[in-house]
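Look over this record as teaching material.
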Amino acid sequence: MHRTQKRHLSGLDIAVTPAQARLLRIVDHYRDTPPRMADLAARLEVVPRAVTTLVDALEAHGAVRRVPDPANRRVIRIELTDTGRSALHALRGARRAAAEDILAPLTAEQREVLGGLLSTLVDGPGTHH
């Protein structure tokens, strides 16, 4: 999946690592209140220093920006920029295209079976019919 997605991204002007892409998705998930660095570290299950490195790289590309928390000036929050939203949109498109490429040989019935199997692996047995 990663190789196919990377092939789809190669035609675009985006150089984002998988970890950076995941951080963009997480920042986007927060919508109303941009996350703190500690929130991102917890969601990514990494040390805060690793998040700082990711944010630094994305900020250098203009994809995110650090903004002060209106309630506490000592707290810094991370928000997507328009560039970051565009990159996220392109990444999602590449993921969809990669999934379509990978699943193309399967019939609709086989895709449904695969979806059920994957759901069982993720959620555990007996949660899907």
Summary: Residues 41 and 48 are 5 Å apart (CA to CA). The chain has a mean pLDDT of 86.
